Amino acid sequence: MTTDQRLMSEIREANLSYLILAQSLIRSDRAQALYRLGISEDVADLIDRLTTGQMLKIAASNTLLCRFRFDDSMIWGLITDHGRPADAESNASRLHASILQAGRFSEASE
Predict the structure, then answer these.
(1) DSSP secondary structure letter of residue 63
(2) Top-tier CATH class for 1-67
(3) C-alpha distance from residue 28 to each of 24, 83, 108 (Å)
(4) The pTM is what?
(5) In this structure, how many other beta carbons lie within 10 angstroms of the beta carbon of residue 35?
(6) What are the pLDDT digits (tens) for 60-104?
């Protein structure tokens, strides 16, 4: 198997896993899924209605469906705790990062 074939196989697996997870989240707790996945109601509706065959076809594309939601070094710093050991302060940092991301999600969905 060539490097390109291996990469395509890994992208296909990641895409299928992501679609299955997304559909499961949407069906179990829609509001939480919208926040955790960072998607709109319209996209959630589309994912919810996908058949297994459609998910397999979409997963086979050469584009990775999921992406990093954090494009801000401050957020990355908060969630990685700047290399500090876990304690109450690091928990507060993660909470702060979640609050910042929730605000961004709220702004994006308006």
Answers:
(1) S
(2) mainly alpha
(3) 6, 35, 23
(4) 0.68
(5) 17
(6) 999 999 887 766 776 667 667 655 555 555 566 556 566 666 665
